[in-house]
Request: fold
Amino acid sequence: MSSLTVIPDAASPSADAGFDAQADRVADWLLGSLEWNATLFHVGQYCGRWRASTAGRARASFHLILEGRCWLHRPGLESVALSPRDGVFLMRDVPHFLSPYADPGIDCAPRAMQPLSASPALGETALACGFFSFDGPLRDLVAQSFPDCLVLRADDLAMASAATLFDLMRSEALRAGTEPSVLMDRLAGLLFFYGLRHVARSDANARGFWGLLRRRGFAPLLAALLQSPERPWSVADMAQRVHLSRAAFFRQFGEACGQSPLQFLQLLRMQIAARKLTQGESIAQAAEAVGYDSYAAFSRTFKRVIGEQPGAWQRARRLDRSEAAGVTAGETNRHRSETPGH
Reply:
């Protein structure tokens, strides 16, 4: 379990404002490079001995507390109290359930969620529950760097701005009732992104790639890779940037990221190229921007990393944009016909 409250350590290397800002910009770029999708399945309230869970569907999920209080239970772990405007994000499909009691042994059963009311009665808990996903070449690197479960806390001053998103979700839920709401999906996705960005920026929660990013010298290196992906970077060049031997740099990078520096650079280059193709640049321009003189070599690498030839990928993205409104409405209606185990 990871609480998102962070206590700054003035003596830590990342206390330097310039270094911290650079690491934050790199984290923002990496998170922003992913393709996000959140689908809200149920919004409403419970009363009595209820139990709610999204486990068992092989999907990442979330529970947002709009009103009232409840507890999060996971096998073998201490129960976690949840208050209004708290959020639970389960990065992987893990056993869990929510209930109104601190003791997970109290007998509770799944109940039908009731429509959200403007003034919930004492003992009622209003929830917004759903599923999320993200995709892109850097997906695995990002996902593996987060714990299984994140708890977004309303009383965390660093997350104060997120309260507005909760208020907007509650207002939209009252307006839409049981009807599908694309706005609710968008707000849920934004809140999820907001929470992940906070974790990525927090020294207290840094692990995996995010922990590496917080080490002195690595943020400037990654910023340089992003700024000049066309350069013929070598492992020795990268190691020199962070003042480590080639062997020490290779080991530290591999331990944190699960891949070599050059493998990471390849993923980064293809992500940059994909973004340029989305923005309308030609394949030749995108290839040149990330250091490829050969169209054939670029196409082979792009297909291996992205899964499609660059031309086919670009055409598909153009089609997606042109049909976005119709697809969103259709998907929302289809998903609302499912039940997430409440």
